[in-house]
Structures are given as C-alpha cells and as structure tokens.
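Quick note —
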Amino acid sequence: MWKTRGVRFAALALLLPFRVFAHDAPNDVTVRAFLKPEGHQLNLLVRAPMAALQDLVLPERGRGYLDFDRAGPLLPAEVKVWLSDAIDIYEGSSLLPKPRVEKIRIALESDKSFVTYEQALAHFSAPELTNDTDVVWNQTFVDVWFVYPIQSDKAAFSINPALAKLGVRVLTVLRVLLPGGIERAFEFSEEPGLVRIDPSWTQAAGRFVVDGFWHILDGTDHLLFLFCLVIPFRRFRLLVPIVTGFTVAHSITLIGSAYGFAPDALWFPPLIETLIALSIVYMAVENCVGAGTVHRRWMVAFGFGLVHGFGFSFALRQTLQFAGTHLSTSLLSFNVGIEIGQLLVLAVLIPVLQLLFRYLVTERAGTMILSVFIAHTAWHWMLDRGEVLRKFHYTWPTFDALWLASVLRGLMAVTLVAGLVWLVNVFLRRRNDFNPPQDSTELQ
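Predicted structure written out below.
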C-alpha cells in the first residue's frame, strides 16, 4: 500500500503544474467530534487540522496558497487512513463496519461551525471553499461526516478513538448526543482505550477499580508514605487500624473533592503535592526517633490521609468523565482499587522487611537506613514542589455571605471528622484493654 501511494505522490509531483509538499507530525493536535445516533444510522462529525494528515501531499498555487480544486480529490483516501481506520465504534458488543464518508469539507481556522452539533451538520451543506480564498495549507481544517449503519439508536455504544498518531500530543474533544436529549462530553489525551458512552454501574465499577489499583502502584509518593507506615509495624494485626485510618481519610477528601468540596484555585494542587512530600518526610523522621504507639500512628496516618485524598482526586478528575451517571459507584470503586493495591503492597513489603531485619541488618539500623533514604528523597520533592507553589499568588477571598457559608460547611466537615477520629480512638483503646499485647513488638 505504501509503495503504491509513493508512486502516486511521485507522479503528482512530476506531472502536475503546481508545487507539492509533505510535512512532519505537528506537535499539538486538537480533534473535535460529535457523535449522534439517529434511527438506523449513527453520525460522526470530525474536525482535525489538515497538518495531522501527515503523508498528504497537497497542491499549491500562486504564492504558496492551497489549491482547493486539486486538493479535494486527494482527501477521501487520506481521511480513511488517518481518521476512519483509526476509530472503532461498537453497538453493544458488536464492532460496527467502517463508515461511509458522507461529505468532506475544508474549513478555515476562523470557522466556528463545530461549536454545536447543529452548526457542524449545517456546515456540510454550505458552499465549499474555492480558489477565491487565499490560505496556506497549515491554516485549514479537514471536516468529515461519517455515517455508520446501526440497529437502534437506543443501543449501548462505545468508541475507541486511536488518534495518537495524528501528532506528538493529541487532544480529542468528543460530545455525544443520545436520544431523549441526553448529552455526554469527553475530553481525553492520546488514546483512552474503549470508552463506553453510557456505561452500566458494573462497567463503571470495573473500570474504576482497575484505575484505582494501578494509580496506587504508579504513585511513588503514596507508596513511600505507605512504606513509612509499615517499617515500624510489620504485623497485619497492628497495621489494620493504621492503614484503615489512611484509607478512610483519603476516601473522605477524595469523595468530597469530586463533589466540589475543595478549592479550585490554581495554587491548591501544588500546595497538596508539597504537603504530601512533607508527610513522607515527617513519617520518615518519626520512624528514626520512635514511631510511638499504634493509636498515635493511626491518627497521624488519618491526618495525612486527608491530604493524600486530594492528591488522588487530581488524578481522578479526567477519569470521572467515564463514570456516566454512576459517580458515587465510580468513586467507591476507585477507593476499592486503591485498597486492593495497598493490600498487595503490604503483602510484599511485610515479608521482605521481616527477612531483611532477621538476616541482613538489625531492626533499629534497618529502620534508620530506610527512613533516612526516604526522608532524603521526599525532602528534595518538597523543595522542588515548594518552588512551584511559590510562583502562585494567593488572593484573599471576598468576605461575604457566600464565604461565610463555605466556612460553616468546612467547620461542619471538620467537626464530623474530629468526631469520627475520637470514636475510632476510643474503640481501639477499649479493644486493646480486652486484648492486651502479647510481645514487645505489639507494645509499640
């Protein structure tokens, strides 16, 4: 296929009385699309920069302007290679056949047709651009109207837009219009995999459990914090209240942030990232000077868990668009995935630390060496993130009724959390009274 295309390009370059050119992949590409099932057909309207069709050889005229008359016949084959072949759409579990190209239009960068579905659809009925318009190739869009045959517009649809090859960094903005006036908006970078337009609660739960699991395993700072929790207390019985306190705390702030109970200022994410690094430094130093009792350690883990929950929420923001109407289910599932990942980490760390302290180094020396290494790493993270935080300027809020209401909501949340901590602490102390520790390790 590539050989045939190369021959075609060479023939065009030699025989046609105009200049041609090819180009490299653009750095930043934004693809806009509308998806709407209607009756027994599904309409997909796509707008992409002309520069994203990288092996397209376009004709020029005059002073380097695009020759619309000769460019039109070249577009269908390239649209197929770069767009329709890269997009898979499913009706239920069935992959739809490749679409029919209903119409193709070249549009100027100033064209605002793809603001709404109705405007975009009407754009394909408008007159095509001609050589009366002087524009260079990299200042145009290619707009395509694809039509897929479907059984019913009320089916469950999924889409897999594998468009990463269009550029170095590709952003896809997709709006889906379903029967009954239901709309879904998606925005994803690179290739998101299979995106279910209207997932069931089981599909949403499954996706977010997996996302939570991989997020905790990919989060180096969260893993180091968990490592610091484990080093002094290497028994599951002792770690249960500590890790549970951390999990409950980050679940509270994660869910609260998802429902809008968190600052949306630009300085807030770097502040949280700096505090996360600080939490690791604190826990590592505490391990060096003495971890204290289980009761104290679980409260420290709970307090820092509130901070880590905001960190989890930043990673979850882009993912929540895949939850459909199951926001609560997705949030709980994400936390379940994090908990599964934490348990897996504990299952690996505890035996490794037990072997390390038994055969290679004494417990005190090993705790000091590991904690100092972690503290050194987290200290540099804290300094780097603090430098980023210093670039933001904090503006004082307007002290009005809205501010007062937000303060009252915050105080209520703090009171509820403090009450929860008190109740759990009382429960743990009473349990410890009925089940006294059996050895020196548990006296910690």
